Amino acid sequence: MLSENEFDVVVIGSGPAGLSAATEAARVGLRVAVVEREATVGGACLHRGTIPSKTLREAAVRAVFRRRFGGDIKSAKPIENETVELQPLLAHVGAVLEAHTQRIREELSEHHIASIRGRASFVDGNTLSIDAVSGKKQELKAGCIVIATGSFPRHPSGIEVDHENVLDSDSLLAMTYLPSSLAVLGGGIIASEYASIFALLGTQVTLVDPSPAPMRFLDTEIARRFCDAFTSIGGRIIQGKKFTQARWDGLSVTRITLDDGNVVEANKVLVAAGRIAGVRGLGIEKIGLAVNERGLVTVDDRYRTVVPHILAIGDVVGPPALASSAALQGRIAIRRHLGLPVDAASTLVPVGIYTVPEISSVGLTAEQATKDGLKVSVGESRMETSSRGLIAEHGPGLLRLVAEKGSRRLLGVHIIGETATELVHIGQMALIARATVDVFIDNVFNYPTLAEAYRLAALDVIAQWERETERP
Amino acid sequence: MLQSADTFCLVTELESPPDDRSEITRRVSARLAAGKVQVPMLPRVATEVMALARSANASAAQLAALVHKDPSLAARLLRVANSVAYAPSAPIVSLQQAITRMGIGTLTDLTMAASVKGLVFLVPTFEDHLHALWRGSLATAAFAKEIARSRRANVETAFLCGLLFGIGRPMVLQMAVEDVKAKSLDIKSVAVRAHIMEAENVLQIEAGVFVAERWKLPPAVMASIRFHESPADAGEQQTDAATVGVASILAANALATEPLETPAAPSEQALSILNLYPDEIEGIVARKASILEMVNSMTA
């Protein structure tokens, strides 16, 4: 029998990955503890990242809609000639966080998972020392330890983040008012999301992206459409230029020096140049672990580190670093550790990006499929031409289906447009079922709905194949 | 069962704590309760500077023009800009130059600080005590800023909360001194001064809330005044109140004229709300030298 401080599994971190691992282990009857260094459970996803930024996005879109209506969000013009305070837009976030936190507490309680607040560090491979805020210490022993400590914003050299004029994604939403101008350094998901949200709110946003295109993992056409949408609401993109320095002028602007010598000026700067695995202070070196050259913890396909009973999941192991995939990793890691079966299809993870407008994708892009030696066609449907799109005046949107020639099998779905992050799940289910594109024509969807875009895109790709067959 | 009138009075008397406060404290308390207090308005220049500083198009020239409206504020800005904290390579001779050197953030902090000081920190015969209070407020504001920075919270709000959390103290002092004068008491008497200090300690929160309401200060400041010693009671503003509670203790330790054998420790409740671990507190305390430099430059 285990003593009070002994557990089968101790999970460090209570974000989506950690919670999923803990509940999976508890479900099969193991004695589990979760250690969280913050005051409340939920991790950065809940308190500093996903939930607050999505709440801001919703509030921004609603604010624009309300102020224009008369008005609509299809032209997605920024709010003009109005002072917008940031905090009222985030007023709802407290209630959202409280509801989420309460749900997590209930989940922990239902599964009899011990919740321990403090900072964990390895004593040895089976022992963790927990330091409380008060300075008190205790030790926990476990047969399996799961590192799910998430990540924190990376600050590139030359860019001093003072959380006052130069902010990161942890401090950005503590601003009480909207800056008139904002330079966003980075071209990933976080950078693109905040850039488009603040542009919609009327801030002059300059996105400085060191890579040739933002969010390069996306379908090329979808990424291009995002750039168009962003510039149409007043955003500016500087592509392929590295930022070397950011200096507050001591008065009102920060000057960002680019590697071509040009300077960008903005009232506030958001540094969104990636995230680093949150392993600082864990003492992983004591158990023979180290971060790799990318600053991440290396794991195998079972999420085992080089120490087999120590698992690592979520942001600490790197991309895709999404809340959804982190939760899946937690479940898979525990089931594989315990030798339980895992459904292979469930490894298909959609990507949801809460830019304005939303972007979402699942499966292969045409480029990836071609690289894999597949012959593919892409069917398109403009969402604003669907009946529901016209009724709702959601504005421009595009749905792209990637399908294999010959087998007609669906390989990927890529969407930009309002509700894209919801719509993508129809495609995901079709992919899991290994369906052909005909599934969208042979089956009946509600009418009018945005899901009609699937049918139109399927018709488009089939028409392409028919034209190719008709050609001599 | 109904209580008879006599029984009811007896119960009430037994439940009320004995009022062992001095006459001065009671009279000042009565004035506060009756609202017979004249709270000076914030000078227009302070609100204008803060509004302009927030605007996108604020320029040093515009700000300088505003500050020129208040000669004492202008003089203070020049003095601070020329102080060791900003280490100018050549003397700063213009306001525009001073603003450029200090930055808009410092300008607004200083404007607010100078305005508040000018309004309520003028109580004859208590100058030294007021000076110490003033230094305490500035140091608390600076430590609050560092706590907010380390927690990724808003540093501007934290500064304002720290600066104003003790605003009730000079107000009570002023009222107590007025009371002493009205009653023709000897203000130099040790007993009278002790009673004045008692009034300050007992009524400072009540008076602070009174000022905050009149000045329509934000909820975070109000909560910092009321709950900095019991932040768990501050509802949604508990992190603001806890920030100021911890900052005020760090400030008191930092301003101690002689090394403290056992420096006061922030409350576990406040540290728990802020989730500040011992090494993080040490990191904030390590900024003591630069904070004292700022306090000295602002109070020179």
The number of domains of chain A: 3
CATH class of the largest domain in chain B: Mainly Alpha
> What is the CATH C level class of the largest domain in chain A, in words?
Alpha Beta
Q: What is the count of helical runs of chain A?
A: 13
SS class of chain A = alpha/beta
Helix-strand layout with pairing:
The complex is a heterodimer of chains A (472) and B (300).
Chain A: E1 6-12, H1 16-27, E2 32-36, H2 43-47, H3 50-68, H4 86-89, H5 93-110, E3 114-117, E4 119-124, E5 127-131, E6 137-147, E7 151-153, E8 166-168, E9 181-185, H6 189-200, E10 204-209, H7 220-232, E11 236-239, E12 243-248, E13 254-258, E14 263-266, E15 268-271, E16 275-277, E17 310-312, H8 323-337, E18 351-353, E19 359-363, H9 366-371, E20 376-382, H10 387-392, E21 398-404, E22 410-416, H11 420-432, H12 439-442, H13 452-470
Parallel strand pairs in A: 1-2, 1-6, 2-3, 6-17, 8-15, 9-10, 9-15, 10-11
Antiparallel strand pairs in A: 4-5, 5-6, 7-16, 12-13, 13-14, 18-19, 19-22, 20-21, 21-22
Helix pairs in contact in A: 1-8, 3-6
Chain B: H1 5-15, H2 23-34, H3 44-54, H4 60-67, H5 71-81, H6 95-120, H7 127-150, H8 155-164, H9 168-182, H10 190-214, H11 219-227, H12 238-255, H13 268-274, H14 278-285, H15 288-299
